[in-house]
Amino acid sequence: MHRARALLAILCLGLLRPCAAAADAGSTAFIDGHVHLEPGDPGASVAAALRAMPGEGAVQLVVMPPPFTFGDPARYDAEVFLALAQESGGRMLVLGGGGSLNAMLQEAAPEVAVATPAMGRFRARAMEILERGAAGFGELAAEHFSGATPYQSVAADHPMLLALAEIAGERGVPIVLHLEALRSNMDAFERLLAHEPRARIVWAHAGWDNTGFRTPALCRRLLAAHPNLFMDIKVDPVRVGLQTLLAAGASGAVRPEWLSLLREFPDRFLIGTDQHYPEPVAATQRWQAALRVLEGLPAELREPIATGNARRLFGGKGAEAGARP
To answer: What pLDDT does residue 251 have?
Structure first.
């Protein structure tokens, strides 16, 4: 662990200038608000991410565990990376709850009313995550199709999620929520958003829709109705979503219907690539697709979506303490 921390200190000192140089060269600097690391060797994973950042133009990474169940042998939570991130010179923030709060949520999912002891443990764990230095909660799942994690489904207005919204609102931190869009789960999602207007909910993976239902029109309706709703943008060049932001072909321009939505709500979107570090073997990485989105935006949209909105959400440099949407 000491060797890993020493390596991080060296990396953090050496990475500041390359990032500035990359920006000077014309690349788009951005904050990646949705990143996953490999817990098997935390020091090596963090070092790989920090080493990659200058070439990508990333100035900050928001790291979070995936949404786990108790039965997943790979389950971990924020503690694996918190100490290392805190030594990164502000270049890395950590969200928590994917390995604990989400597992509690999925275990309690069938229950409409949660027993008092279970709710007490859930609230206590949420507070512990923040007290240990996490910048918010994530990644939690209300509807998650099977893949790297098993299928998970729970009503978005489940009592535990409502309680978490109350804590997030009181403490001024965001919740990153994975919710595949279905006609049957939107009413519950809106009840969650309305329950605590101070709670900033980041609906993960705009532009990577697996049902065809998360259209710009649906996003527009929800954003207009709920000022505390934010969305992170994911474009997967390998497994393209059904409502992707980028047009097919060599131009890869941002689709007009998405560009119109971004113009209407420039303060509600951020980049959240879902990139994994060390980077998987692939011809094109997800961060590269995100850069194509940013570089296809008009100048007045690029800064808020690339960095400004993430700074407000996660409390980074320039964020106002206790800011509300």
So the answer is: 55
**Residue 40: both structure tokens together:** 């098997």
- Residue 139 phi/psi, 5° resolution? -90, 125
Is residue 80 predicted with pLDDT exceeding 50? yes
Max CA pair span of the chain: 57
| E strand spans, 54-199 | 58-63, 92-94, 96-97, 137-144, 152-153, 174-179
Q: Give the number of other Cβ atoms within 10 Å of residue 263's Cβ.
A: 12
Give residue 318's pLDDT. 30
- Nearest CA to 27 out of 323, 249, 294, 307 is that of 294
**Which CATH topology does 2-314 take?**
TIM Barrel (3.20.20)
3-state secondary structure of 63: strand
Q: What are the structural domain ranges in the chain?
A: 2-314
CA-based end-to-end distance of the chain: 39
53 vs 69: CA distance, rounded Å: 31
pTM of the model: 0.89
The C-alpha atoms of residue 65 and residue 46 are separated, in whole angstroms, by: 13
